[in-house]
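WARN  no MSA supplied for this record, continuing single-sequence
INFO  ligand: (R)-mevalonate
INFO  echoing inputs
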Amino acid sequence: MISKATAPGKIILFGEHFVVHGTRAVVGAINKRVTITSEKNDTAAISISSPLGKATIPITEEIDSVEKKFRPFFFIAKEVISDHNFQNGITIDIQSDIPIGAGLGSSSACCVAAAASVSNLFSKVDASQILDLAIDAERTIFPRTSGADCTVSTLGGIIEYQKESDPKAIKTEHDFDFIVVNSQKMHNTDAVVKRVNKFRDDNADTFSELCTEEDNLITKAIDSLQTFDLETIGKCMSQNQIFLERIGVSNDVLLDIVKTIEKETFGAKLTGAGDGGCVIALTDQSKKDSVVENMSKEYETYPVTIEKTGMQVNITN
Ligand code: MEV
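INFO  complex generated
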């Protein structure tokens, strides 16, 4: 019996970093997915095959001694095996079309799809349990995660997210055309989040004011997403970029991309942790192809849309 699950990547439209400190964020699933298949094996090991390499790890191994890139998968398999008193191992295969280390939610989508695929080998999956397991798995490599990325990957669509509250779907009939420009500089989310923590400790008043401004911006942005007011959404994105610059997570390459693409779109900002990774811009559908063509001269650039379908899982024999 093979269990197969898929989950989408994400873009953060508004509120990255501030969300780690309790402010709201607006996050959208994108039409790039990870697919994970798993099956029980008759060894005493977890075998993992991913675009980043292969490993076979004895079930008795401690989580902390497993290489970071395999740790969330090992954690999920070990948890599920123990919950079901299973005596053997599990084989997990990961395929992905989400760029890695680019701020597009590759690791969260992997955690969600792996949690769903492995759990489904033993019992019918429940989305909220899958989400909890996925967030715990992500914490093995990124202890401070807000949970926003795994949540949108599980639910799909666009959500308003705040830690300790139920996520709210932002309902809209419209299709949004975003363009992703990859600076091709890999980043380390945990390291950037730590830096923002330090910024907050050293500049408590400024940070608190920025959180309030970000929250006000998000109220306006949600309203304009619902009314499909593309110009206002774009302006809010550009304003959000300025807040992100103030907390020190942008850099020269990202700023250069933002300034260039802003000229022919409604607005642009970095997305995710920053300090590398991607910029997103909101475009008019009719201009999408020409913007992609222009930006592609210098950077890897592609259009993305919002993916309504979150995590999906099934069994094949
Ligand atoms: C990373 O995609 C987004 C951050 O806000 C971290 C988080 O929310 O866990 C930087």
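The chain has a mean pLDDT of 96.
INFO  checksum written, moving to next record
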